[in-house]
Amino acid sequence: MHTTNELAGASAELRRSIDSNTEIAKVLLALRTDISGHARKVQAMLEHDVQARAHSEQRFRNDVLRITGQAAERIASEASGALKPRLEEHSHALAVLRVQVERMGRTARAWTLASLATLGLTLVASLLVLGYVRRELATARAQVQRYDDAIPVLRAFHASDAVVCGDRLCVNVDTRGPRSGERRQYLPAQDRTPAGRE
Fold it and tell me: Which is more confident, 125 or 42?
């Protein structure tokens, strides 16, 4: 049978475990939100950089056309060729970053699911332990009630001048005592006194 201190200790340990799992889930959700926000910022910066470079290329092309006339097309083609590797590098970096962000998101989801599963298992285990403790307490209460019910019988036996004779009780009857029972067939036993003991 479990003591109250053991049950209190188990309850405190369970509460600490639930609090710990809740804190882990909060941290993972916050981390996931931060990662997603950071990825959006990086993606926006890269897209802005690509747009700025495209705008710069267009402005450069216009300036060249204005200055050089017919040679502008050739210069613009060379400028585009020079910027193309840089743009491809940015596009590749953006794709790699997107893959990393998706991988981190999957990891955060896996940790969240694992934490929720652990929390669920802890809750189920807690409910099972609580059910077991309730059954044990009910059994203990029933046993205490049986003891409480036996106390008046034991007191009456101890107060009466009676002994066990095989599988029956033998009593020293008080013939002057009041009769009881439906037909008034029972007489009380003598009080147990040192002189009345055999």
Answer: 125
The rounded distance, in Å, linking the Cα atoms of 157 and 164 is 10
Name which of 108, 97, 85, 104 is nearest 45 in CA terms: 97
Q: Which residue has the higher pLDDT, 71 or 11?
A: 11
Say yes or no to pLDDT of 56 above 80: yes
Identify the pLDDT of residue 2.
57
Cβ neighbours around 21 below 10 Å, total: 20
151-173: pLDDT as tens digits? 888 888 788 888 888 888 888 88
User: Is residue 72 pLDDT above 60, yes or no?
Assistant: no
Whose structure tokens read 């997107």? 98
105: CB partners within 8 A, 6+ apart = 32, 35, 36
State how far the Cα of 100 lies from the Cα of 107, in Å rounded to an integer.
10
Q: Which residues contact 172 (CB under 8 A, 6 or more apart)?
A: 161, 162, 189, 190, 196
- As a whole number of angstroms, the distance between CA 178 and CA 113 comes to 77
Which residues, listed in sequence order, are joined to residue 160 by a DSSP beta bridge? Answer: 191
What is the residue-wise DSSP string for 89-102? HHHHHHHHHHHHHH
The gap from C-alpha 144 to its chain's centroid, in whole angstroms, comes to 35
Q: Name the phi and psi angles at 169, rounded to 5.
A: -105, 140
